[in-house]
Amino acid sequence: MENRIEALREYIDDILLNMTDTFERRCGYLHLYGVSHFCTLFALKRSDNVELATMAGMLHDIYSYKTLDTKDHAQKGSILAKEILDNIKLTTADETEILCNAILHHSDKKNRHSTFDEILKDADTIQHYLYNIDLPIIEKEKNRLKNIMNELGIKYEIE
User: Fold this and answer.
1) Is 0.90 surpassed by the pTM of this model?
2) Long-range contacts of range 16-25, CB-CB < 8 Å, 24 or more positions apart?
3) How many CB atoms lie within 10 A of CB 102?
4) CA 109 to CA 119: how far, in whole Å?
5) pLDDT at position 159
6) pLDDT tier at 83 (50, 70, 90 boundaries)?
7) Of 151, 129, 152, 155, the residue nearest 140 (C-alpha)
8) Where are the alpha helices (DSSP H) in the chain?
9) pLDDT class of 24 with cuts at 50, 70, 90
10) 10 Å Cβ neighbour count for 93?
11) Nearest CA to 61 among 33, 97, 23?
C-alpha cells in the first residue's frame, strides 16, 4: 500500500526544490512542513482524519510558494491542490473535496467552517505565531490563537 503522505511530500518537495529564491524556499519548507505537523497534532487531539489533515497542511499554501503570488491564494490554492491531487491520484473525489474546501477556507480565520477546515486554520495560525514569537501577532489570528493556547493548556496572555 502506498504511503500517501510521503508521495505528496515528494511532489511538494519537487516544487520547493525548484524555487530559485532561497529565502522563499526556506520559508516554504518551514511553513508547509510546520503547518502539516500542527495539522497532524490537532487531528490527533480532535479525533479527525490525521492522514488528510497532514496532507492539507502540505498543500494549503503551495500556490503561494509555486507562483510567489499571495493574492487570492486560498482560492487559487484550492484550485491548484485539486489539479495536483487529480494528477497524482492519491485521493478519492470526496477526499479531494474535503482537502480543497479546507484550503479554500484557511485564510478566513474569523469565521467557522467544518471541523476539518478548523484544523487547518488553527495549524496555520499557530505556525505563524511560533515561527517567531517576538513578531506581532496577526490581528485576525489573535482570538483564534488565544483559543488554541487554551485548548493546549498553555497559559499565555495574548495582547
Assistant:
1) yes
2) 16/65, 19/65, 21/68, 24/65, 24/68, 25/65
3) 28
4) 11
5) 67
6) very high
7) 129
8) 4-17, 22-45, 50-59, 62-67, 73-88, 93-105, 115-131, 142-151
9) very high
10) 9
11) 33
